[in-house]
Design goal:
This protein is of the alpha/beta class and 231 residues long. The chain contains 6 helices and 11 strands. The protein has one domain: Rossmann fold, CATH 3.40.50. Helix 1 crosses helix 4. The longest helix has 20 residues. The radius of gyration is 17 Å and the shape is globular.
């Protein structure tokens, strides 16, 4: 498989180490390396400025939400998106697997918890919306169905779920060559058809799917999903 390019965290392009699609990588294998990588870079990430395309995607999702909606942000990082939604008068809860990221959220007045995506310790159907920007790309394909099921369980019928991930023309899983994070982070790149297939298998309805052109050949898969009302 040829290598491909991705542009992550506003840095220079990096090559992806190719990995055979048939290999079995499990979420519990990548959690601890991801936790260490993001703990170490939390303060640096807290100082980053949001790219305009991220602001546009966030605003578009905000406009779909009912006033006062209760929103869960998964993979919240240091609070930028959670703070935005809270400032817009939504009831916000944030989770991240990095305890250092969660400390940043708490320091800024956001309710936040250390959790991974497979262990969402919230009551059934307790959120009106879930926001996930550039975090589900850290979940191996093998465990993505279970993660989507866990998210669906905490989303009320009729609720909305935003997924934003970097897309690819071919599937690939593995770390990024020369990643500035230590240890290098695991990524899963999915084609448009694969991402939509995972959503359908998880029994979500598609409200919107589009590709955001990020320049230099890079693309974001923007997917807004709906949990059916009649459940």
């Amino acid at each position: 498989m040829p290598t491909r390019w991705s542009d992550l965290d506003g840095h220079r392009d990096r090559r992806v180490r190719p990995i055979l699609i048939g290999m079995t990588v499990r979420y519990d294998e990548v959690l601890e390396p991801l936790r260490k990588a993001y703990d170490a870079r939390a303060t640096w990430r807290d100082g980053l400025t949001k790219e305009p395309w991220k602001l546009a995607e966030r605003q578009a999702f905000r406009e779909r939400l009912a006033p006062g909606a209760r929103l869960l942000e998964i993979g919240a990082g240091t609070r930028q998106d959670s703070a935005y939604f809270q400032d817009e008068s939504f009831v916000v809860v944030a989770i991240d697997l990095s305890a250092t990221m969660v400390e940043h959220c708490l320091a800024k007045g956001i309710e936040a918890h250390v959790m991974d995506f497979l262990h969402l310790n919230f009551p059934f159907a307790s959120f009106d919306a879930v926001f996930a920007m550039n975090c589900l790309l850290h979940v191996p394909n093998h465990d993505l169905p279970a993660v989507l099921a866990a998210i669906r369980a905490v989303l009320r019928p009729g609720g909305l779920f935003f997924v934003g991930v970097y897309g690819a023309n071919e599937s690939a899983e593995g770390p990024i060559d020369d990643d500035e994070y230590v240890p290098p982070r695991f990524f899963s790149w999915r084609t448009d058809q694969e991402l939509l297939g995972f959503a359908a298998d998880a029994r979500f309805d598609v409200v919107d799917f589009h590709i955001a052109d990020l320049g230099r050949g890079h693309r974001l898969q923007s997917l807004t999903l709906h949990r059916p009302d009649n459940e």
